[in-house]
């Protein structure tokens, strides 16, 4: 049978099947058609084909192009179902077959839609290593799909072998009135061919990823899209000034990043102006000039700033006077300020990454739920809240060199923990390069008190000496009392058990069995009795392991060393932790 | 039995609706749950009657849809809990059950559930040989061997070698 004859037959099949559908979408009040599943009546020929076409299309839309195409072999009624789907996505990464086949399938499939005058609601194409063969095909079909097939959601994502190459997007697509969501990657909105008509007024989503676009072209587009809700600009070249203003009163989310996959190399002099008082989410990565003439952003819920230049004054703007709906605030590696005061009643999640030693931070967030910070220990740190149940996650680095006194560093940790002592604290200590002789046990300063910590994570280098480990633990327990201690954030537990060099873990396992320590050749008993003041507060130490795909920690009972613990375990554990039970700190 | 309280204090009796299946059984549903279905919402806006007769949805299916609507209308549940409810809702269900569910959600216009169920149905078909799907859903192969070979030849890209061997 030739293809033409089969197509004709397929068309007839389709028509007859549409007639036999047992339900129409708006048949709530309609009399129920009889189901005659038991005998071979005309429309209940099998368990799935009787579903109406829109539902079958819906189901097929979750399959890959290959899988959807395979359904054509099920039976005649399925022959053309996949090739009439209202949403199609050609993804080279999910396609099995070479580029040539990919392009010919794309061409043939779209020709089929074109010949039958079918509509496409969503069209997506994603290609790797775009070459000169692919370009003419894209140039041919993109305008047809966009202008003649009524596409609402258009996604063109191209990746070129050559990093500086772009696809010169036919600008005629900007005349597509039906377009609602536009996703572009690796495209160029050419300047040579100036944009004179922008007809889509219904655009809701504009997503540009590694797109070359001039300021004029962008302004032309954005000024026509007054219904726009989501603007995402990642790694766009040429776009030095970005302005969204009160024209865009439906804007919900603005997301800018100067880096995505490749650097644009235009980080410093770019300026962003957002003057949409109704915006709900702002995310900016890498920008030195962020402006807004409006003071009040009454709907802003989430503000994420990464590598953005701020000043101490910016923190006035972050206050509840101007941002009364702000729930999530993330400041990550922002610069331009040392001292700051943040007061906001609505903030529930606060993340402050890239803290500097020179920072003087004063935070007043009455309704905090989660506070996270990472970086150096700030010069001063105060934290106020009236929240009753909240958590904090603190990750501190140290590059303490031989000139610094490590003991004072521990006291600084204590001051941060004191400020957060009303929360359930998770503390992580990272990146140590210390000499053990810099760790000694000084006297506690007056008013000093160890803080209870729910979880302590230690993520530092594995080959510490034994004396370093014991001195480190003593210093640590001087400033905090962990309920649980996880050895390392990055190694797996099996390595822990098998690496003899892992002195800290070995040391901790020895604490497990204080009674036997005299027999242990590794410990100088005299030294241990003298230094381990914290032993008196410690009621119990236990070791627990976590298996892959497990749901909870399992306590390892009755073992005296890590090796013997490993021997009694049924499987290889994924994680290991130590539990400490402390006497009440008075 | 229709109360006249309009979103009153907590003590006020919540509005409810009676939905009757095609088998004639009646279900009492809170209005807040019912309006999650676009179709039911339209009906409730148009008429005063608190009894809705669904002539093409059976008892079993309707009970499941109502369980879904009630869960999603519960303000006390977090979005995460609702999501995991959705996952459990479709897992382990027979294909026929899903089929009637997808029809019912399409009729009642419960977009989220329709999406979840359709996706689950696609997951069942994913990575399966044509023969398996035919067998599983009693699809009669009405192609001649020649026509079948022709389709395979035309869309050769859609089949990888492994499956050709298995067939």
TrEMBL record, chain A:
Membrane-spanning parts:
none
Give the residue range of the signal peptide: none
* Residues annotated as domain F-box: 45-93
Q: Which InterPro entries does its entry note?
A: F-box-like_dom_sf (IPR036047), F-box_AtFBL13-like (IPR053781), F-box_dom (IPR001810), LRR_dom_sf (IPR032675), LRR_FXL15/At3g58940/PEG3-like (IPR055411)
Q: Where is this region: Disordered?
A: 1-44
What Pfam families does the record point to? F-box, LRR_At5g56370
Q: What protein is this chain from?
A: F-box domain-containing protein
TrEMBL record, chain B:
Report the coiled-coil segments.
Answer: none
Domain SKP1 component POZ, chain residue ranges per copy: 15-73
Keyword Transferase in the entry? The reply is no
SMART domains named among the record's database cross-references: Skp1
> A single Pfam family, by name?
Skp1_POZ
Is the keyword Nucleotide-binding in the record? no
| Residue ranges of domain SKP1 component dimerisation in the record | 118-158
> Which InterPro entries does the UniProt record give?
SKP1 (IPR016897), SKP1-like (IPR001232), SKP1-like_dim_sf (IPR036296), SKP1/BTB/POZ_sf (IPR011333), Skp1_comp_dimer (IPR016072), Skp1_comp_POZ (IPR016073)
- Entry similarity comment: Belongs to the SKP1 family.
Q: Output this protein's name.
A: SKP1-like protein
Q: Which organism is it from?
A: Rehmannia glutinosa (Chinese foxglove)
